[in-house]
Structures
1.
Amino acid sequence: MKNEIRVFAPASVSNVACGFDVMGFAINEPGDEIILRLTEKSGVVITKITGDNGKITYDPYQNTAGAPVISMLKYLGMEKQGVEIEIHKKMPLGSGIGSSAASAVAAAFAANIILEANLPRNEVLNFALEGEKIASGAIHADNVAPCLYGGFILIRGYNPIDIIEIPVPENLYCTIIYPHIEIKTKEAREILPIEVKLVDAKTHWGNTAGLIAGLITNDLNLVSRSIQDVIIEPVRAKLIPNYYGIKNAALDAGSLGCNISGSGPSIFALSSSIESANKIGEAMQKEVEKIPLGCNVYVSKINKEGPRVI
Amino acid sequence: MKNEIRVFAPASVSNVACGFDVMGFAINEPGDEIILRLTEKSGVVITKITGDNGKITYDPYQNTAGAPVISMLKYLGMEKQGVEIEIHKKMPLGSGIGSSAASAVAAAFAANIILEANLPRNEVLNFALEGEKIASGAIHADNVAPCLYGGFILIRGYNPIDIIEIPVPENLYCTIIYPHIEIKTKEAREILPIEVKLVDAKTHWGNTAGLIAGLITNDLNLVSRSIQDVIIEPVRAKLIPNYYGIKNAALDAGSLGCNISGSGPSIFALSSSIESANKIGEAMQKEVEKIPLGCNVYVSKINKEGPRVI
């Protein structure tokens, strides 16, 4: 048995405009790093957390990385095994790019290897979801699944959870801008309507279907036409200062489609070249600086591999 | 200029469970036949209608086949050209399998050829939609587009109309049963809710995305899991006696998915072989006879070519 493992898990963009709660994709950077270390003394202990400004709990039962490890040890009948966890947050918390999902996935992925559990990915998913549940209070797989599987993921349904891996065009790039404000996922959910107009719902199912068709058949024009949101965006845009200014700047700079990443405040913009992705990032940044707010900009291809041992 | 043309246009299944108003596919049979004949005397005249039990008007302006021809003549500046139309209905009216769409498409397709207009298909579509509008009172393309293009069609959006041709697995078969009751499209629309729960809408956009992915990647199991409707079916099922008995019989007989065709009363069931499609037809028929009602059963592959000159 190996004694230590260090795993990177990527950030992810959920919802993807039309696909609220059912779609997401992973990006190459940023991402979180988790170290698991087997110890003689039984019990799971979080020994170090960096990059969180002191915001994350060291209680392993209440920690998105701790819970999956505890749960997997129990499942394997290995409660006596001691595990130390180090969490190195390499991306901002609560920024809408799947920070808690990345920590949960990295921990579950690492535990599966170091405990020699050899569980298939769909079972590892369940342990990662337990970590995500601690963060968001509910089982949402639209960050966890893309982070764990890599690529673009459709969660067709939740009863039972049905993960579909959608092939993506080779030349698809994502620019993300994170304006330095905080939006709590819970609050971003509470402002959503319980009911929506059937005519708006139809618009969404036309667009989700179009987006999937465009991705699989490598039709970026169709992808672009399908990245629309008439239900969630109009409500959540109010939480992000100058949102439409930022979005329009991305579109004017040539983005295929731009929308809120997860529950925000991060905003993602897709494009078909690294040059375009960089240009879009600069254009969005100018709009954020007008507010004025600080921001982080990330430019990356779609991540295809999910977590990896480093 | 050729003097006469005879065109067949196929029946079609719209909605396809999850894709209310945005999806449809054409089937090989039944279908309507339209004959157009150029005449010396100006004006459009409907000279013969068969198979309609006297239900269809001979007024070309109020007729789904007449309106597209009149409209195309006007568009081409050929108002002086005389055209005779014969309409041979080879499928039941108001049965939910795109009867009016087939007549409108056949007429527009035939007019485009005999008038030597050489309009591209997306323009022919607009003329066919004018005919369909007379029948349903609104612009719905989910029967007209599959009938005209053949195959499985996604109407991603309506502003402007955005037709996406979705490849379908070679071995996809459709069984249709038409129980002999009448459901008016207008009434079937009026009972639908204006608003739906966001959670149900999400179920639909997950399923429409899943259905499209399953069709394109030839994953019939995914197609099967995606053919679900939690919004329209529960409301419209009440209009069809023993609907769930018929549906369950189809599923028990091995159907990949079964639901209401268009606004009903026809019910479609997909399967992956002709043997299975026939067996499903027999099972559904037994349930319709229990009501008791007469019925028609059609078994066919997905139609890939749309209308054709015969």
Note: The mean pLDDT of chain A is 95.
2.
Amino acid sequence: MKKILILLCCLLPILTFAQEDEDAFKIREIYDISLTQGDAYETLEHLCTKVGGRLSGSPGAAAAVDYGKAKFETMGFDSVWLQPCMVPHWERGDKEVVKIVASQTIGTQGLNAVALGGTGSSGKVGVAGEVIEVKGIEELKALGAAKVRGKVVFYNRPMDPLQVSTFAAYGGAVDQRVYGPAAAMELGAVATLVRSMTTKLDDVPHSGVTYFEDRSKAIPAVAISTKDAEMLSALLEKEPVRVYVKTDCQWMPDKLSYNVVGEIKGSRFPDEIILVGGHLDSWDLNQGAHDDGAGCTQALDVINTFNKLNIKPQRTLRCVWFMNEENGQEGAKAYANWSNDRGEKHIAAIESDRGGFTPRGFTTEADEKVYKTHIKKAKEWDKLLSPYGIVIKPSGGSGADVTRLKPQMGLLFGLQPDSQRYFDYHHAPNDNFEAVNKRELELGAAAMSSLVYLLDKYGM
Amino acid sequence: MKKILILLCCLLPILTFAQEDEDAFKIREIYDISLTQGDAYETLEHLCTKVGGRLSGSPGAAAAVDYGKAKFETMGFDSVWLQPCMVPHWERGDKEVVKIVASQTIGTQGLNAVALGGTGSSGKVGVAGEVIEVKGIEELKALGAAKVRGKVVFYNRPMDPLQVSTFAAYGGAVDQRVYGPAAAMELGAVATLVRSMTTKLDDVPHSGVTYFEDRSKAIPAVAISTKDAEMLSALLEKEPVRVYVKTDCQWMPDKLSYNVVGEIKGSRFPDEIILVGGHLDSWDLNQGAHDDGAGCTQALDVINTFNKLNIKPQRTLRCVWFMNEENGQEGAKAYANWSNDRGEKHIAAIESDRGGFTPRGFTTEADEKVYKTHIKKAKEWDKLLSPYGIVIKPSGGSGADVTRLKPQMGLLFGLQPDSQRYFDYHHAPNDNFEAVNKRELELGAAAMSSLVYLLDKYGM
């Protein structure tokens, strides 16, 4: 018995090394497939150039669902279905008009602007008012209603360029866009301008969601380009400035839409689910290439790669293209509710929703009861992934569409690409297919496939 | 005494921690300056858009030297000088004409092509011949002169897409461009086509150097775009193909040119030199933005940052914009010879010549007698640099312009940015200012400044 034990102790490291070699080999194969036979780029091209903008409730979103279902049905899933959800339906209407009116210094001049999602209409004649510039909501509230009433509020706190992660910089500035217009409305402002959420100084305006508790009271709220924000701010140093804003936006009744779901039943542990996904909806003014066509097509490429390598998952593998991440997350809610109701267990879920740039790793989150154990296990895989520049990070969250699965006690991941260029395109008219680099996209897909391979093999 | 020793032992970690805190704070300051008051981007814009292409021996290169000297003189160096070197002078002449002639399938069709640097002239009437496709020089040699004479040799081995580092892929394919045309000439070929050195499938041809031992015998050699290479290869499966090539290139007598050098004398250790640099020359058909305007302007930004933070180097700090990296490295040779003749000691040299993309770390090299000691010391700094995504790598080389300083027994570094997009632009008409992202460039400059700060403080 003792001899057997000694033998086992000697063999164990060898077996472990053999296992590691096998995994290293498989991951190399996964990268080979992604970089030479991946279909993320081609799928993205279709989604961007044939379907285009996919704002929840729009004909584009409906076409994207149709395309998604048809595409999924070619991928060899055991089952493909559409999961219904009621989504908010906001329409931009006619192109926004935003201009400085009769300035003593520069006369009348248009600004590069787009209405924020959720914005109200100005009515056909538009609204005008004197501009007051603030650096944030607290500063505005301190001014009080007497000074704000009838004015156009201009939020102009830049994203902090000192943050190495642009997402951290975004997190420190985006409250102005999300809650600033409603705060201005409460104090009697007639419209709101928000400096675009980007570190880049250019003429490109960046949209995104803004919230009004009572939609019927929503005032016009537009993002202006960073260059125009700088110019307006400089002009305000010299003279009072009046701005005219015309928006044609409106809220329509909620609309029926869908998540697109594909499933391969696990051969050994069908009750343990691994999810890969991104969100299918985008804003209306671009092709939603980085946000988040990239994530959708990378997630689906996991299936392509498994097919090509003839990997039959032991655990149930689901790919989900979520609807309505941008302005409500109704798809994510519908999925989580449905899954919870069925008593499902997602042992892991991976979302890609930070752009199709060179991947650096995965951020993570989990219920605190299980986080330490899970992360310890996942960190073991760093040695297999780090040759590809991929590291599992013990923090940083997952993704808006999968975070609701946390109560199922799995480990949730967010693909983390290089962040420097993301906010050059985010919610802006230039987030189009051309902005995505094929290899960068494919390396992200390969990282996701590799992680799914390990999760499927070893569980969580 | 024992008590003092114990006290010292207790204090040492505290002192070390205090030191580390001070360094961490200083590096944070360096990043703050680079990201908000850096001038790499502005200098690059000037170099790209006001000076433009800067091929050795050209008027552009001369203008770049003038601009460099004038710019250096505004930077507060103790001394600025031009260091002479004789450089090769090759001229492209009239635009190349490369076309498939009278194909049964597609008729006559132009190809996206550029002459390789060092290429000969076809004469005014051009040359034509039947195309033979090979995957490399060995395959060509195996064919022998009888099968090659009078033909147009087409090298079509792609860069290996499976390499995660595109530089590794480049290294595995570029012999076709550098030595392939001369090998074809030896066997009697009338011209050479080379598949462009890029992993991207597009219509952009990529130039670069090719070597003929006897320049007077140089045959026309052009790079064609990857899409055209694929198309031509497919056509060759169907039918014999003739290609016509006309080049107007010529060699002129060597020309006097210069490295631009700026120096700040070290206050405590003036004989220990730290060099930062890039190369000023580029190809003629682009603005040389990533290759290597980015490296030049990042290197100079180290001086800008030190000025803004009032850091007076203890060791002598030199910034060098090297001439003629692309086709001869005569600037690098002149600098190394001059420095060796004076018995100088470069304790470190850092070159940036892999594009202005998000930096990931520094590769290194040194004489093997000192490498282990040096790298151990440098690796200590990982903990200060890794919060910015920067790691010192114990391999990977430095840069073509600084590698000749190895006999001086210092540690040589190459800035290592993300490599995925570099070969989308390398030596191609699209390597222009717009291709560089401001933050990515600045982060590289900050990484270089941080490393120089540590090298200056602690020596090597």
Note: The mean pLDDT of chain A is 96.
